[in-house]
Amino acid sequence: MQKNVGGADRIARLVLGPLLILAGVAGYAGLLVLAVGPFPQALTSVVVFLVGAILLVTGLVQKCPMNRLLGFDTRGERESAGPTKGRP
Residue 47 is part of which domain span? Predict the structure, then answer.
């Protein structure tokens, strides 16, 4: 699979991913209330942790299966293109 995550999308994933991981851990430990409606605290914390982990990994490897399925490519031509002629 080709890289399809870059620019602001990648930065957002690399910032939000670790924040959600920390929030999930804090919620599971009872330090942060994450329970929403009928969903228990532990379940919500695990879901938040997993979303954060997915964002972090896709930001690091610059490959997102969901972007591929939806046809998104946030890397852009500037990042994915090789060196241009005439430039050192």
Answer: 7-69
